[in-house]
Design a protein that fits this description.
It is built from eight helices and three strands, in the order αββααααβααα. It has about 210 residues and is mainly alpha-helical. It is elongated and about 105 Å long. It comes from Streptomyces olivaceoviridis (Streptomyces corchorusii).
């Protein structure tokens, strides 16, 4: 006894593909925007603190993320720009921009984790405060903000990976905006010869407005 297998409906497959593309697009936008915002916010927070010995007393020192390393903030801006540029390019350009987005996220995470235990920024502050170039920071402690920045980088990385996987099915800018086509010109209104101003213009030109 033979069994007949129903062929898949192309329309249902196309609808499923469209739904998958919309979901991946929404997730990528959310992860990319949130990741860049988190990374930028984290670099403005205190990453490390300690003390320096100045005139026999303890002088408090603090270092923000931007004092420790400027890489996460710079890459967050690059990643955010790449996230927007994904929709302005197509084919190979979209693939390259998606790769840049993913690399920006990976670079943020790596730079933040490497700098999580860095003390060079506070050592420089200790040397300036004490006037001794060989002075180092004492009672050094670190906060959890470097790991928050790394988490932001992971979100950007995820957005880049989604763009690499599903980007070809995402919409792009319309051809009108890409080519910068001009707006349609307005058609001139027909001239009414009976209007007073048109009669005066005809007289100035030496014409007979009555047509006689």
């Amino acid at each position: 006894m033979e069994y007949v297998t129903a062929a898949p409906d192309p329309r249902s497959q196309a609808a499923a593909s469209a739904r998958s593309g919309r979901r991946s697009l929404a997730v990528a936008l959310l992860c990319g925007a949130l990741g860049a915002a988190v990374a930028l916010l984290a670099t403005r927070q205190r990453w490390a603190e300690g003390t320096a010995t100045v005139a026999g007393g303890a002088f408090p020192l603090t270092a923000k993320g931007s004092d420790v390393t400027g890489v996460p903030a710079a890459l967050a801006i690059v990643g955010l720009a790449a996230l927007v540029a994904v929709f302005a390019v197509r084919r190979a350009g979209r693939f390259l921009v998606s790769g840049l987005l993913a690399l920006s996220g990976a670079g943020i995470a790596a730079a933040a984790l490497v700098s999580a235990s860095d003390s060079s920024a506070l050592d420089e502050q200790a040397a300036k405060a004490s006037g001794d170039t060989s002075a180092t920071v004492d009672a050094l402690t670190h906060t959890g903000w470097p790991y928050v920045a790394a988490a932001g980088g992971v979100l950007l990385l995820l957005a880049g990976l989604l763009a690499l996987r599903y980007g070809p099915s995402w919409p792009a800018m319309s051809g009108r905006y890409e080519r910068g086509t001009d707006r349609p010109r307005r058609t001139a209104r027909p001239v009414d010869p009976e209007r007073p101003e048109e009669i005066w213009k005809a007289l100035d030109r030496g014409e007979d407005p009555t047509g006689a």
